[in-house]
Design goal:
This protein is an all-beta fold and 121 residues long. The protein has strands spanning 4-7, 10-12, 18-24, 33-39, 46-51, 57-59, 67-72, 77-82, 91-100, 106-111, 115-119.
């Protein structure tokens, strides 16, 4: 079992920035897809950003130009830099690392416990 630990959350004012980090207990960041998800009370969890093993990135439309997902293979970590944060981006941010085998079966699907991000004045 791989353990994921998120860090970097906190309270910021609108327009502020945070850098979230996801650390995996084993070297798997480079082998699959790493994603950051956000969930607020009463709302559905939504995908914020992903980075693939090949280094391809994808972002929720609202985060494009402000969010950057990256990874450090040597440290086995994945970060999410969030700039110019908005109040509606408040929520618990979860790290996910997953990979599917050829044929569709899941090889692994790990989740962290989440880190709280609050954007408020």
């Amino acid at each position: 079992q791989v353990r994921l630990v998120e860090s970097g959350g906190g309270l910021v004012h609108p327009g502020g920035s945070l850098r979230l980090s996801c650390a995996a207990s084993k070297t798997i960041v480079v082998t699959g897809i790493t994603g950051w998800y956000r969930q607020a009370p009463g709302k559905q969890r939504e995908l914020v950003a992903t980075i693939t093993a090949a280094g391809n990135t994808n972002y929720v439309d609202s985060g494009k130009g402000r969010f950057i997902i990256s990874r450090d293979n040597a440290k086995n970590t994945a970060d999410l830099q969030m700039n110019n944060l908005k109040p509606e981006e408040t929520g618990v941010y979860y790290c996910n690392m997953r990979r599917w085998m050829p044929g569709g079966q899941s090889e692994y699907n790990y989740w962290g416990q989440g880190t709280q991000v609050t954007v408020s004045s």
